[in-house]
Amino acid sequence: MKAQQEEREEGMAGNHYDIIIVGTGPSGLTAAIYGQRLGMMVVAFGDIPGGNLYMIERLMNFPGFVGGVPGAQFGATVFAQAQAEGVTFPMTRLERLIHQDNAFVAVDVNGERYEGRSAVVACGVVPRMLKVPNADKPGIYFCSLCDGPLFRNKNATIVVIGGGNMAGQEALSLSNIAERVLLVYHGHKLKMEAVMQKAIEKKPNIEVLLGTTVVAFKGEERVDGVVVSTEKEGQKEIHAEGVFMAVGWGPNLEMLNIAVEKTEEGYIKTNQKLMSSFPGLFAAGDVRDTDIRQVITACADGARAATYALEYLDAMKD
Ligand SMILES: Cc1cc2nc3c(=O)[nH]c(=O)nc-3n(C[C@H](O)[C@H](O)[C@H](O)COP(=O)(O)OP(=O)(O)OC[C@H]3O[C@@H](n4cnc5c(N)ncnc54)[C@H](O)[C@@H]3O)c2cc1C
Prior knowledge:
Blueprint: H1 2-10, E1 16-22, H2 26-37, E2 42-45, H3 71-85, E3 94-100, E4 103-108, E5 113-121, E6 125-127, E7 140-141, H4 144-147, E8 157-161, H5 165-175, E9 180-184, H6 194-201, E10 206-209, E11 212-217, E12 225-230, E13 234-239, E14 242-245, E15 249-251, E16 281-283, H7 295-317
Parallel strand pairs: 1-2, 1-5, 5-16, 7-14, 8-9, 8-14, 9-10
Antiparallel strand pairs: 3-4, 4-5, 6-15, 11-12, 12-13
Helix pairs in contact: 2-3, 2-7, 5-6
The protein binds flavin-adenine dinucleotide.
């Protein structure tokens, strides 16, 4: 293994790596730790150590932590572990990942170029947005844990858009901060777990508006409410100090300039070894066509993607 590593290091001058990893969430960081420990030179891109872990108030379902662990703390620890293994972290986002002259080329937001012999796309998911007027204005939030405290002690009315578990979770958490929470959903029946629905019913300051479609965000400089449409009342405006989106997530693949097979929703399809339809390009975690999107499955994906990346690189040498 040592000889292999020395041989690899000899060929690695400047920004040349064995694996380029896109994403510093649990899947990217685990891939980075495994890759480096397997003797490869690893560079991992991302500006948030731990990725979406910071949004998890208390990670309760990861083995090894009685009583759970704050997501941000877990993310920072795994990041420090990867740093200690020698992973290179430019701490920038990737502008694009391309394949050129037999190499993966990563160009970061500062225009810096990095080359890799393989790549692992581990860039997670991003919240979905409504395609309605004013959706590009500031004042629309996606994470109650992160931005809910902005509305503490403000007698605020907050609109939460969505009807699934995520919307339920957001409404419940914001009901402890805001004076009034309006859960606005276009469907006629909430889609969340019964337990969550019951918890919402018990909260006197959460009002559920079913059959109510958001047709625009309102506000001049910043969003200060929504315009909704209902069968009975037609269009009306609802003023709110804060608007939180909770209508689901989609893959985060804007930077990927390599054609790969994807699902209808845009998730990367992989084989048993987590390789995409493009040789040498692997996918791990939430961005992949997978059945369970959780921290533990993301970590497992990272471990497997790095291991199979090494297998791929070794096979290329034969
Ligand atoms: C509110 C909330 C609560 C959750 N609670 C739990 C829970 O209790 N238990 C559990 O197991 N799971 C939970 N999850 C799910 C869990 O967070 C995800 O499954 C997990 O984080 C996926 O890891 P990942 O590495 O695939 O992606 P992410 O954690 O999303 O990390 C991807 C990283 O890639 C970065 N990235 C994206 N594009 C680029 C680019 N162009 N350049 C560089 N970097 C880029 C992103 O910024 C992000 O930092 C929760 C998720 C949310 C949102």
